[in-house]
Amino acid sequence: MSTATAGRSSRAAQARSRDSSRPTRIRGTGIAFWLFFTPFAVGLLIFTIIPLLWGGALSFFEAKGTVLPTQFVGLGNFKDFLTDTAFLYSLRTFTIFAIFIVPVTMATSLFLAVLVNGIPRFQAFYRSVFFLPTACSYVVASVVWRLGLFNGLDSGVVNTMLSSIGLDPIADWLSASPYWWVVLISVRLWMQVGFYMLLFLAGLQAIPSQLYEAAAVDGLNPGGWRMFRMITLPQLRTTSTAVLLLLLIAAFQAFDEFYNLTGNNPETRPPLVYLYNIALGPEQDFGHGSAGALVLTAIMVVAGLLQTWIIGFDSNDDARRRRLPWRRRGPVGAVGAGAGAGVGATVTADLAGTGAPPGPSADAPSDPSADGGHPAAAAAPEIIRPDGGDRS
Amino acid sequence: MSTLTMAGYRRRRGGLIVRYVIASLLALVFLVPFYAMVKTALSTNDEIYSTTFTFWPSDPQWARIPEVLSDPRFLDALKNSAIMAVVATSLSILIAALAGYALARIPNRFARPMFMMVVIVLLIPGTTAFVPNFIIVASLGWIGTLRGLIIPGLFGAFNVFLFRQFYVNFPKEVEEAAHIDGAGYFRTFFQVIFPNTLPFASALTVLGLIGSWNAFLWPLVVAGSGQSANTVQIYLSSFLTAQTFDYGGLFMAATLSLIPVLAIFFFLQRYLVAGIAATGLKG
User: Which of A91, A190, B18, B269 has the fewest CB atoms within 10 Å around its CB?
Assistant: First the structure.
């Protein structure tokens, strides 16, 4: 074994070690690949590919109360689903929800990021507090929101606050239109704002300080509004685009808080709750359910491709970068790469060239313990270096 | 940062105080839900329904902790959630690490097509998959079982993708040395490669633990309203849909259910943040 490796010419060995896709050949290579890959491949086949094909087939059949096809209906299920007013209403619910939650979360998380970034001490403390709700579950948050903060009693937290500023307490927050939106939007805002604050913090800390120094020399007030508008905002364009798309996709997939706060109320039912009710509600209609799942999946795949197209291209795709002005310069880092998450922002980048420069998503967390000390403080370097540490 | 901004700070000390005041007030606002939760958990039912606001219960009901913990359904739910979080997270990390390593480092002509497949699967959102996944789990007879809860989620393409990226950038010299010493792929992986992956794997583990503990949609699909294979989140949610009147007990259960995640959050926060930097967290 070792003699076989050593026996090769040194030039060939060098060439091999330079080529990233071809490590040293050793015994059992062909089998090893499948030994390593098969557990995942089998699981993927049984729990992703077969269900998709089965669901796809089922969407052309009637299947009520059974997961086996009973009668072929062609595209009937799709037609029913797309023309069902309840489905269209769920899209309306998503739209209203998104119109509020997306800008409010963006503004709040950016504000928090700038605030936390602008204080010299106790940064880690404030960041942890704003990030803490992320550890909570939507169910626990729904319990607190529905029966605690917004319980409709005069002694409830929000009603007490309303009374203290001279407004009438609201007796029932979850059965009338403007009020339930307050509950639904505030709970998601609280749950997710800390996460997007982290993304904006990473973006802020990737802005070269020279830009601020140059602007200060030009007479802009450090920390002032003009500095923010002229330097910070334009430099955050990639991060903001990523955050915007992530927020939209997340809002489209909202389920937990709607299910637990307003249940199956047709007026506050987002697409996923509607789909859940079709497939797993009293009717157990898997024909329409499968068709609906495909429709919603298609919508999200398109959104994901759009996201990948806009923010996901790595440095080796210059042509595309030139068409997107905000990609032209400045650090495009962890957010572009990391934010892709479910829809794979770095994915296409990697397809364009295996063995491309190490992406920030891969090497940033490789040694999270390097800084020691307080856990929260040690966390900082990972998000400070979205550009892969070039600047440090 | 730069000395220039520090000078700016000194000139704007007043502004800095304002910042701290705003940040502290906002921090308080962010903590209000936790406060309301613990307060209700410790209040008597009379206090909860009273019309006047009290800042803190006059007679904290600590006895509620053993009371809630003696409910066998809650204990069962805690046990299921713990099993699911630990087993699902560790197995999925192991499966993903193996697959990612194969794609990155074991030469095979199928490596590239398989990687393409992983990337395509990545584009399919996990949330809408509950309908087709229910179909397969139902036909396997796994509804209402821990198997049904855990196994379908073990094969996440995203973790495979992340591990593959991680191993592509992993220094080659380490494993070459192991190979030259006569170690096969398995020994190399488990004795040399995987131990070096631990910081990265820990970041994904922390995210996975919190994610499974807090998961709601899939446990709802598998456990439904049934009594078996309930997780903590399903247990809590069942009180909301059933319009419970024991607010105190529900809030105490909610508080207790948060303790494991908060412990993870405080002690492993650096891994959590590192994990988010690595993954961007799945929407």
Answer: B18
